[in-house]
Amino acid sequence: MTDLDSHLRKFQKELSAGTVSLALLAVLGAAAEPMYGYQIAKRLEQEGEGVLSGKQSALYPVLRNLEGGGLLDSFVEPSVAGPPRRYYRITDTGRDALREWSAAWRATRDSVDAVLQGAYAPHLPGEAK
């Protein structure tokens, strides 16, 4: 692995830390019914294009953290095909957080996009950037 690969992996890890929480709230905010972890992970795979980067195990600590913060509720139900399942649903506080976090995400994304837009423009030596 090159230094560049290492830097990219570190950047991706740091970037995903907050975005996974936002994506989880968005999935549960759009869900008509409570969902269990595997359903949430599959929805993120379908719609999130790699937001979990194939690490479903990372999902559960984030779900517990969001629940601990009052943004999600959960309950356990028996399963016909295996162990009991914990289902999650977004709370009213979670919906408020989703609105605020979404606005913060858009503002950050737009700011970064504006800065990046000029990063690839060719410049001649001595020319102002």
Automatic annotation (TrEMBL):
UniProt name for this protein: PadR family transcriptional regulator
Gene3D superfamilies associated with the record: Winged helix-like DNA-binding domain superfamily/Winged helix DNA-binding domain
Organism: Lysobacter yangpyeongensis
Any Pfam family: PadR
Signal peptide (UniProt feature, chain positions): none
Limits of the Transcription regulator PadR N-terminal domain: 24-100
